[in-house]
Write a structure and sequence with these properties.
The structure holds three protein chains of three kinds.
Chain A: H1 45-56, H2 79-86, H3 88-91, H4 103-120, E1 124-126, H5 132-149, E2 157-161, H6 167-174, E3 178-182, H7 192-198, E4 203-209, H8 221-230, E5 234-239, H9 251-254, E6 258-261, E7 281-283, E8 295-300, E9 309-313, H10 329-365, E10 381-384, H11 395-404, E11 411-412, E12 421-424, H12 432-451, H13 453-457, H14 470-476, H15 484-488
Helix pairs in contact in A: 2-10, 4-10, 5-6, 10-12
Chain B: H1 8-18, H2 47-59, E1 68-69, H3 82-88, H4 91-94, H5 106-123, E2 127-128, H6 135-149, E3 156-159, H7 165-174, E4 181-183, H8 192-198, E5 203-210, H9 221-230, E6 233-238, E7 256-260, E8 276-280, E9 293-297, E10 303-307, H10 314-317, H11 330-368, E11 373-374, E12 383-387, H12 392-399, E13 404-405, E14 408-409, E15 420-424, H13 431-443
Parallel strand pairs in B: 1-13, 3-4, 3-5, 5-6, 6-7
Antiparallel strand pairs in B: 2-8, 7-8, 9-10, 11-12, 12-15, 14-15
Helix pairs in contact in B: 3-11, 5-11, 6-7, 8-9, 11-13
Chain C: E1 8-9, E2 14-19, E3 22-27, H1 29-35, E4 38-43, E5 50-51, E6 56-62, E7 66-70, E8 75-80, H2 90-93, E9 102-106, H3 118-128
Antiparallel strand pairs in C: 1-2, 2-3, 3-9, 4-6, 5-8, 6-7, 8-9
The chains are: A alpha/beta, B alpha/beta, C alpha+beta.
Chain lengths: 489, 447, 129
Amino acid sequence: MPEPLIYDLSSPGRVGVKLPDLDVPRAVLPDGLVRDILPLPELSEIDVTRHFVRLSQLNYGIDIGFYPLGSCTMKYNPKINEEAARLPGFAFTHPLQDPEAAQGNLALMYALQSWLAAIGGFAGTTLQPAAGAQGEFTGILIIRAYHADRGDTKRNKILIPDSAHGTNPATTAMSGMEVIEISSDERGNVNIEELKAVCDDTVAGLMLTNPNTLGLFDEHVRDICDLIHDCGGLVYGDGANMNALLGVVRPGDLGIDVMHYNLHKTFSTPHGGGGPGSGPVSVTEALLPFLPGPIVDIVEEATDELPPLYGLVTPEKSIGRVKSFFGHFGVHVRAYTYIRMHGGKGLRAVADHAVLNANYIRVNLQDTFPIPFNRVCMHEFVAEGQWHDAPDVRALDIAKRLMDYGFHPPTNYFPLIVHEALMIEPTETESKQSLDAFIEAMQHIAAEAREQPEVLRNAPHKTPFGRLDEVQAAKQLILCCRPAWLDEA
Amino acid sequence: MTYIPHTERERQEMLAAIGLAGIEDLYQAIPEEVRFPELDLPEPLTEMEILDELLALSEANLDTRHFTCFLGAGAYNHFIPAAVDHILRRSEFYSAYTPYQPEISQGTLQTIFEYQSMMCQLTGMDVSNASHYDGATALAEAVIMALNHHRRKRGKVLLSSGIHPHYREVVRTYMRGMELTITGDESLATGVPDLAGMIDEDTTLVAVQYPDFLGRIEDLTALGDAAEKAGALFCVVTNPHALGMLRPPSEFGADIVVGEGQPLGIPTSFGGPYLGIFTTRQKHVRKMAGRLVGETTDTRGQTGYVLTLTPREQHIRRERASSNICTNQGLMVLASAVYMAAMGQKGLRKVAELSYHKAHYAAERIDALEAYSLWNGGPFFHEFVVRCPRPVEEINELLLDFAVIGGYDLGQEYEELKDHMLLAVTETVSKAEIDNLVDALEEVAHA
Amino acid sequence: MEFPKDLKYTENDEWIRAEGSVGIIGISDYAQEHLSDIVFVDITAAVGDELSKGDSFASVESVKAAADVYMPVGGTVKDINEALPDEPEKVNASPYDEAWLIKVEITDASELDALMDADAYEAFCADRD
């Protein structure tokens, strides 16, 4: 049942939170700058609480069930992370406090910078970028700055595989560079012949997601990196799929020069219904001077009596700030906690079980769903949501029907190179029972597709809401509500 | 292995089903010589142990619970009602993803729709998106929007020196790929009327902050008119807390209103995560970046909400997208929505007035001290600048003994303001704490 | 799917009907079918604009995709379909008739020769799927 809008629950004169009275003399209000009306809702605390609690009940989350959204890494969000971030000593510090008064925070950030570099096989890290897309933007700017610094200004091309996430070409365009798309070969790897043909001295770099969005580890990754380096370019690694590589291989060892991580994917920080994320960027030694600043460094070494003194420094050839202050510190605390509780072996186990789980589902569905590029995958794989003997049923319908079985659907229609794509990423925190239940549901749905396709076409049936009309939303474009009395005023 | 449920037997069963002998066999595609490195990380702690370590780290900071904080400069210490965190802890909200499957995401979608609505009413604009990362990136997105509005035919961006220094830096970083002239902020002496005089036919956007970085507020109508005459877009960077009391920028003719939403129910948290507000007029909605939630109906006739105008976004337009933004600040949107609902019309007005009056009391008392003087000549909101008798760094170190975290050292940002301190006073500061600050300042005035 | 014989087509799914020196331009049935429900049409060109072959003059949006529309030949804009933005669904219903986008005075008629005729375009579309 729909929940009324907050304005509909409002009642004129009702007050929520009470504040203390003014305890200082009143100053004169600024002439001509004070507003007449403030059209915000008026509710009591119980109304506010009920409203948002009821809204929460209309949501599905990882804490409710399996959430195999490919490329998003919907792993369990440890509750200790939430306690950590809320410690008053973290939550109630101001970013502009004297660094000497914030040594705990700086120590935490310094450790996280080092650990992320160690995990990826790099020399240093910035924690400033607010999300993966911003991390990508940072990485491309670093590549550009590196070339400009060497006096090499004709490199304006970025090579991007056709399987890439949309943020890759969007980031490139934002940086004022040209996108050259490289297709994938029949095994789902980057087409190396095509790559050879375009590598020249106008190429600034390549953006590579490995494992790629098909969930496959590129069989020629070292050759690819060598090719790019040989023509003078750099390789940017999109670290969205890092969950498959933790402790298995370090991207730096494969030839990646700069990479972003998604703390909200690989490192268990909550997705929050869309954010906040965090997209730290790690780089090789040669690119350290270009990192956005400030970053945390040791400004005075430790002595026998004293711990090191941490401070904020801006690298000498920094590309500048990409964000106010230092980044999403509240998210850093959660990632720190996660890594600290896993250690190297624990992270390796994360990758092992993420890859094990994905392959287990793959082999159990391969007879029911077409899987292009069907071989040992990494932490995710892509199936096709269509059958020639069920022509009316598409990936969208399968996704909607899964909700009736109590599951969140996999990612639909991405990557673009597979028709009716269903990208399935279970993550390591799902048990075999959970996977078996999902497999069974998928097999039922495959059968329904032949026997009762209308059930899929009209799904979901058991959720609080049916399919929503997106065409109507785009046409009528109602993007906010106004309290009725505002128009009467 | 902390959150991994598998037993040894289950692992074996699964490997058998896949047809592999051991876990290592999953990684055939990885070059052997670089496989399975030992990661240089400390040995893991259990949940019980980590709490001690985290407590020690968190207590190695001074925090604003134990010290009275007079730092503002873009992040403010406000009272957050308990109801906000209570809702933020509901895992139906935080363990959910972006609402791409609207049938099971109406909680997230309706929250965003309500946030969009309240932002429109606060700023006076017609539409709001579902947020950007912070105020700085929201301003950068405003510049991109203006450039696209003029189809990249105009090349000048005017920024007021009163805009937060970090925000201006971020705009410059974002615009590195383009041949633009970004100017207007070279000197504090360039006031709003001077900025208006710099607008010409090549100006794509003129931006000011209200209240500005130094706390100042002024009527921006003339600037709005000048922008309109030249066909330039007019952007106001604001503090939503101030809009609880001050005239919304829509009344000055703003085309775009951006700002930092951290004061709305989000703790200072050493700089993030925060909330980038972005609102604009209806006619610009298609050029606006970021997620957008719209109203619609479902197959059962119920009113519901969906992400809309998605073709603008990166996952469809790819290199033709106006921005690469993917994430919005989800949970921070929720926090601000609960805050605005809980405080309501009256609460937001009152909290703004409390800050205003307390700041003015503090300014008056400090100005009366012999060794200090108030720099602000005109109206200000809840921040003001004080000229100090000695370096701000020295004063702040001494203030710690009085359990006070002093204001921001403006000499770091503006040459003209060496030995000047930016102080913010919010509703959380009592008269006694202000009097304590004044006494402390007097005592540390001279070496 | 329709491929009217009297039109010429581009690989980007624009069609042009040449009536003497005037060219009428729109997007094809194939395009509207693949975009699905059109929700927005934005004609960015103005009467009097001198455009070259390949210049973008409009964009068409549906819920799942957005497409830029390009000049199949060079020309000066004589008329734009002012009514279309208010009724974007016409692009789906009548792509070759009511949903014309612009009319231009063709600069160089020989540019039409480089375009595909109906049969060639139909074959081109068959290959794509």
